[in-house]
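In keeping with the milestone schedule agreed at the kick-off meeting, the structural modelling team has produced records for the first pair of proteins. Each record is given below as a sequence line and a C-alpha cell line. The laboratory manager (R.T.) confirmed that both were archived under the project's standard naming scheme.
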Amino acid sequence: MKNFFLVLAIASCSIQKGNDATFYKYLLNTLGKDFKKAERGEYVLCQSALDLSNPYKTFLVYHSNSNEVVYGPKKLNADIEWESDSELIIREYPETIQNKQDGEKSIYYYNLITGKKYEKINNDY
C-alpha cells in the first residue's frame, strides 16, 4: 500500500510551491531547456522551443501560486495564445487534423477554469 501512494505522489502533476526547484526540473524535462513562458493573471503558458525539424511543440499551463499544471502537457502542431486571463485560443494546423486537408486552421478555445474546449462563431482568423 505504501508503494501505491508513492507512485501516486510521483505521478501527480500538482507540485507544491515550496518545491520550486523540483517544479522547474519538471518544466525542463517536459519542455526542454529553451522553453518560453507567457504569464497572464494567475496562470503561466509554457511552450517548448521551435524546432524546424519537428513542427510539434509541447504546451502546458500552470497556476502561478500553486505550480499546479491545469492544461497539458500537450504535443501539438499549433499556436497557442492567451484570449483572456483564463482562456486560451488554439490554432491547430491542418496537416495534423484528420480529414481536414482544406488548408484552413482548426481554431478553438480552452477555458482553464471550467476545463472545457469550445468554438466561437464568426472568427476573423
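The second protein of the pair:
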Amino acid sequence: MQAIVQKAAPSQKQLSSSDVDAQLMRSIQNYLASIDHIDHVASFFVDPYELLINEEVLPDDCCVLVALHTKSATEFPETTTNASCMVITTPSDQRFATLLLRGDKIALPDHAFAAWNAPQPRRLLVVYLFSDAILLEKISLDDELIENLSVCGIVAQSGNHLTYAELQAEADDASWETTPLRILDNRHIETIDAENVEASA
C-alpha cells in the first residue's frame, strides 16, 4: 500500500541523560541488555510526564521511546519529510497499520502507541534512543493522520493480500533494501514497573 503523505512535518531536539527519568531508562536498558540478538529493536509506550523531566508536556500528548541502541543517529537523520502511514506485512504474515518515521525509514505499528493517555491526542512524542544520542521528535496527530491510520488498520485486517514471501519475490533488490525498519517488539512501561524490577533485583 502506498504511503499517505501528511501536512505537518515533525520537529526535533536533542536530549541529555538529565532530561529523561533515570529509573525508567535503567529498566529499558536492562531489558535491551537481556536480548541476545544484536539487531533487536523495540519500542516502549511511556507516560511523557514520567519520562521527560525538563520538557513541557501537554495533557493530550502521548509518548513512545524507540530503542535503536545499536544504531547511530546518522543512520536515521532528521528530516522535514511529512509523517505518513502504511500497512506492513511481517515475516510471520501478520499485517499492521504503521506510522512511518524519519523519512519513511522506521515503521512503528499503531498498537505501539494505541494506549492513549487522552481522549483525543494531538501530539506523539517519539524519543529515539540511539547508540550515540537521545533525540525527541514531536509529531502532530491531526485528524487526517488518525483517519488514515484507521483506514490502514481496516486494510490490514482484510483477507485478500499477498504473503511476506510473495511480496519479497515480487520486489526487486533496490525496493526491498528501502523497506523501513520495523519495530515489532512493542511494550508499555511505567515508573511502578521500574521500581518493582529494582526492588526485586
